[in-house]
Amino acid sequence: MQSESIFKQSNFVQFWFAQIASSFAFQMLAVGMSWQIYDLTDSPLALGLVGLYQFLPQLILTLITGHIVDRYNRRLICFITRLIMGITALLLAYTNLVNSLTPNVIYLCAVLLGMARSFELPANQSIVPNLVPNNMLSRAVSAIASAREISVIAGPALGGLVFLLGAPTLYFSSMSCFLLSCILIFLLKYNYTSSSKAPVDLSHLLGGFRFIKNNKTILGCISLDMFAVLLGGATALLPIVAKDILQTDSWGLGLLRSAPAVGALLMSIYLVRFPLKHNVGKIMFGSVAIFGIATILFGFSQNLILSMVVLATLGAADMVSVVIRSTLVQLETPDDMRGRVAAANSIFIGSSNQLGEFESGVTAAWFGVVPAIILGGVGTLAVVGIWMYLFPQIVARKTLETKEE
Question: Which of 28, 220, 272, 377 could form a disulfide bond with 159, CB atoms 3.0-4.6 angstroms apart?
Fold first, then answer.
């Protein structure tokens, strides 16, 4: 008997479209901000600072964001954060119209985006299990992931085209998408009431980290993701690979950047249609191992087409592990803890991405680009072996159901 489609869940479909609108808006906004900060400063450091100013609020606000997501209506949090991001886009449009845009304005907007996203990300993750039955959660996670990958592939390209019409047009377009997302979220049929009456003290605020530490399944999933991304961050070196190894131009770099997202999108569409039902623990570790092997092959490749195929494979493998890990974390976490656990998880993910880029840069400077990529892939394989030994209960996991016989 065929499983019911996740897209027959009308409430979830409305949320899914809201996610697409918001993701497109953010990708277009990122294109404009990165282009304009570099145009104003001619400094690669300034580009890095935009990312840093977005990440720091997330790091600083981790404890309070998780608490708020667990205590207050998650739909309302998503609505307010996307409204703030829409106002940020409006501020950028206005400063461009009156010719008063400066690097400090862009840095301020980066901080505002970082603050909004520090609340939005855990709220987004925590609300999904409230919209679908548990047996459809893995398909819901896959569908949300496909929406994200669509925006990653098409959003920057669309933003680049709209930017040709002028920066204000780009930012007004971004603002419009944020407002559309706000409307869809506002009309969502969702009424969350917190069941937690625990006092708000340090112990409560640290509850997400403590819960992760004490739950071996969640600890194993989150830490596997963190170290795999930390060591296997070959994509940070794509500009060097494109120019010095593959001897291609900016067009080739764009193809390389899109390849992992294309692989991830195709895999997420497959997983929506055919959700994983058996031996999910072994499949998760196997997919991370494929991620490591693909990283090694990418390091050896000197052909653009082969590199794109390998990167697409890498993205597809990563999507399998993301869906399994995300579903297990959601199912293993009580609803009144999901905000704090999601906030803590977002720090692990954000830290691994930032540190992964730093690690790739350092090893490339020490050993060269190709050895750095290959070492990263070998390190990922080593992590898989070690984590399979440390977390045998994850290896033995058969299904994504809440309880197993």
Answer: 28
Burial state string for 203-223 with b = 16 or more CB within 10 A and e = fewer than 16: ebbbbbbebbeebebbbbbbb
Note whether 281 and 394 are within 8 A (CB): yes
Residue 81: pLDDT band (50, 70, 90) is very high
| pLDDT at 287 > cutoff 50 | yes
Q: Are 394 and 280 in contact (CB under 8 A)?
A: no
Can you say whether the dihedral through the CA atoms of 208, 213, 215, 217 is positive or negative? positive
Q: Which of 232, 172, 182 is nearest to 382 (CA)?
A: 232
pLDDT digits (tens, 9 = 90+) for 35-78: 888 788 877 567 667 777 887 887 788 778 877 887 888 899 99
Indicate the SS3 state at residue 98.
Answer: coil
Torsion of CA 359, 360, 363, 365, to 10 degrees: -120
3-class DSSP state for residue 97? helix
Q: Are 92 and 105 in contact (CB under 8 A)?
A: yes
Q: How far is CA 95 from CA 33, 103, 158, 245, 379, in A?
A: 12, 11, 22, 41, 46
**329 is written with which tokens?**
């974390």
